[in-house]
Amino acid sequence: MSDIRLEVKNVSKSFGITKALDDVSFNISKGEIHALIGENGSGKSTLTNSLSGIYHKDYGSFILDGKEVDPSNQVEANNEGISIIVQELGTLDGLTVAENIFLGHEDSFVKMGIKNTSAMNRKANELLKKYGFDRIKASDMIDDYNFEDRKLVEIVKATYFDPKIVVIDETTTALSREGRDELYKHMKRIKAEGNTVIFISHDLPEVLTLSDTITVLRDGVYIDTVKSSEIDEDGLKKLMVGRDVTGAYYRADYDEEVSSEVVMKVENVSVPGLISNINFELHKGEILGFGGLSESGMHEIGKACFGASFDRTGSVTLADGTHINDIPTAIAHSIAYTSKDRDNESLIMNQSIRDNICLPSLDKLSNKAHMLSDKKLKTFADEYAKQMSTKMQSVDQFVSNLSGGNKQKVVLARWIGKDSDILLLDSPTRGIDIKVKQDIYQLMDKMRKSGKSIIMISEELAELIGMCDRIIIMKDGLISGELPRSRDMDENSLIAKMV
Amino acid sequence: MKDSKAGELKKQFIYNLIRSSLPIIGLIAVCIVFNILTHGSMWNSRKLILNQIYVVMISATGVFFIMSMGGLDFSQGSILGIASIVVCLLSGVNIIVAIFGGILAGAAIGAFNAFFYVKRKIKSFIVTICTMFLFRGFIKYMASNSPVAASMKVYDYDTTAIKLGITAAVLIISFVVFRFTGFGIKLKAIGAGEKATKFAGVRTDRVKFLIYVLSGAITGLAAFVNIVKNGSATANVGSQLETQILIALVLGGMPISGGAKVRFENVIVGSLLYVVLTNGLIMMGLSTQMMQLIQGIVFLIFVAIFADRESLSVIK
Amino acid sequence: MYKSKESTGKKLSGQVKGYILLLLLVLISWGIFKIITPDNFGSPKNLLSYFEASLLAAVGAVGFYFVMVMGMFDFSIGANIMLSAIVGCVFANRFGLGYFGLVVGAIMTGAIVGLLNGAFYVRLRIPSMIVTTGLALIYESIANFIAGGVEQTLPSNLRAFGQMPGNLILAVMAFILAYLILNYTKIGTYTYAIGSNEFVAKNMGINVNLYKVLAFIISGAFLGVMAVLTISYGSSMVAVTGMASMSRNFIPTMGCFFGLAFKKYGMPIPAIIIGEFVINIIFFGFIALGAPTAVQDVITGLALLIIVTMTTNVAKGEIVK
Q1: Which of residues 62-101 of C touch B (CB under 8 A)?
Q2: Nearest to C2 among A106, A135, A139 (CB)
Q3: What residues does A27 pair with on adjacent strands?
Q4: What domains can you pick out in chain A, each with its CATH number?
Q5: Residue A42's beta-bridge partner residues?
Q6: pTM greater than the 0.90 cutoff
Q7: Nearest alpha-carbon partner for C12 in C23, C22, C20, C4
Q8: How far is B315 from chain C (nearest CA, A)?
Q9: Quick one: which of A109, A350, B268, C232 is 20 to 30 A from B194 by CA?
Q10: What pLDDT digit, counting tens, does each position of A215-238 carry?
């Protein structure tokens, strides 16, 4: 390798009982886009967060241009020449655009304790103009701008001072096509200026086209660094998983007839600002997929069918004529829902696995006098948690101590215990390692065969293609297309309908 | 890795053990210490002390339900006050009517709280400090010139059997319902994660509303015991009850944000500990301000020990 | 996809809109009582005295705003005012330090109480309203010890801050100071940043705990100023116990809710000042109607409840505890 920008040396970091990074060492060069990939929980974000001062590493060192850096927060990292654009929203409500851009760096505008607001706004406007984001005004409240524009402000914030390293952590998933292009442009500019971009993404084709070098992490351990010109998607997958991903990953059948029996009918469903005029039917034993960009409104479909949306209009009707308008009715009629926001909407984190599994089934578990016995609850929870092969000490353990995959298993155990017939699975494999993913795919296939119906909402097109009998694509809150299961379907035909 | 996990769990186990045993140990210790310091006069006045426990313990049961869900209620004193006045006014008619009148009055104020908290989505502590003040105004207005006196009939009911009986009945029913039906699991689940509980099919808003009504009703029942004891309602009736309940529950080991670590024992141990502690300090001849100073310090120490910080990602 | 907007024009009109709304509130509240009791309410002279009375709470409220914007709460406001006023009075009177003792004593005490609130809250990691409830018990008893159970009276030659122009000068100085801190220092920016999202603020290198404690200190110091105005206006202060000081919490808290509601118009401090004025118009309106004193409590409780109900705007599905 040519001249080295950053040496990562024996970096380790633990969170309580889990070791997120284990003795990781590798080098990153100047003037390159260096991708960092791995399954969820492989330690990518932990590494970059430690580098940029959000976390503090336990052992090891980062050597930037021959000098050790050890920032204790983002501002110190910025001063060392390291900046980061985080996955979530990194701008703050209640502050102006300019205040957001210079947050933590106000000192250059402060004289004797007094902040020169107009100088700050002027500087911010100059920067915004330079970046071509003229329509964003420095003195406006950031609250007035949408997610996309706020991400653009973050790009300015992270790069205006020409840092030596810019970390971009899974930002692209949240952006529309225009936003992504804007980001790519700036990544390439940074590279051309001789600085380095560390790029974290799940989107392997994106990684391959954009980056020069790729480093793979697995379970907190460094695996390999490869040139993107010398590897393909399958090779990367193999490195990420650590074994060949066999063909039996998804379901294998292609020509099975789906029953014509309709179990759920969705008519003219709209939720203000999210989805409008949605119509479809779900058949018995069918896996119906919903795909689209994350802001396309597809995530609201699950909530709408579960009676969990606010101000929903239109009707969701079951085969027996029941209208689903609230959650308790939905559950009573054998509908299950797993949320994309697993930690807040699906699971009660600081509560035992037992109570999490039993909660919707309490009526079934109580005797005629509405009394419950601890033993019965425990046996019930234990049975379904074990059926899902959840890794745990006991069902009395709190859910918060489980890994992402095991958390999802608890959610699924809850609904299997309830014996639900219609499953609304929103991003069921999000943040889950490949082994558990495979378990979930097999479970879905088994359920389908036993006559249960599944709606699968996912941002991963590969799993939609691999698992669904039908895929509905959404765009801007509307249905933009529908595709039947076929061997020939590829991601590009779906993407064409998404953007 | 397996070992560190087991070690972590063991640490948690020991911590939970301390958590559950500290209030009981504290109660025993306080009893022994004060009996020695007062040369046994505390034990001799046990009947007097017991007499102070009833109201606090009954109304603490309702607040316990509220706090299990992560809510707060500062209006308990005013609920007791209004309900006491209602009991007094109706006691001339019929004692059964008076009891139900008190319960109904309490439930009505509970519903008033619940309306603003559940329907208008205003933080529970804000709602209840407002209603505390609001209804205290009514009490002052009703009892400003002279206390509202109950009919002489109520004194017939001033026996340990009745007062203790009512208290025990409230505690036993509440315990069984909380511990052995889905009710307790649901309340704790709301305290630990309301959104997820809603998505698991619990009608959280309805439960929250009903709990505030129930808690008001329970305190309304406590008002009957209060009137039986005192015979009349003054302008100060029930004032500070909310602080007493809060301190009592905290002393009993109640995590301030509710959730999974809540135990029904918190009510019983806490109320006993609180009443024994205050009476012991009074017997020691401490001034009001000195007692309040000690109360404040003990309160802070116990809150700090029992706070369930994992469920509060951001502490406001 | 992208929305276009007129930035400066919209901003100005936002502030104008806020002022119009507030003036309407003043007019309506004045109008209603003027119609019911035209004789003993609402002359210009009366209005001036209502305004004078509203200055007290407005000063406390602008300080408390720093705490509320961060999403925290303080139950010890009343105890703080009581303690600060008594200490100020003792300094001025018993120690013979005059005005200097009154002002410095009260503000220092207020700031120390704020420091304690902040320090305990940050160190113990317990919700602020619970910590301050416990601390309020302690402050009340300390005030009681200092006062020795006797009403503390400020000598008549030290009451310049109880009337025009003394009170106005002190209050206006406090308002300007709060405005400067909020708009022209890092503290202001960081206050809003922490109020918006603590995690992000922390990641930006903001020492969140430090600024939280600072907010409590600022709030405490302003409550100290309010204590000076309160004891000068009312001439004496009794040290109550048993959380009775809580009744002093209400009026500053109400003003704060006005500030929070008008934050989006970019004019929180004027909103607090005018808001307190409106509250006082309503109070004096009821007094003019001859409502008994007990009913005042009813009005206070109900008024805060209504103000909060009107100013709170909760997003759908948001969890409120």
Answers
A1: 70-73
A2: A135
A3: A7
A4: 4-247 (3.40.50.300), 248-498 (3.40.50.300)
A5: none
A6: no
A7: C20
A8: 5
A9: B268
A10: 999 878 899 999 989 988 888 888
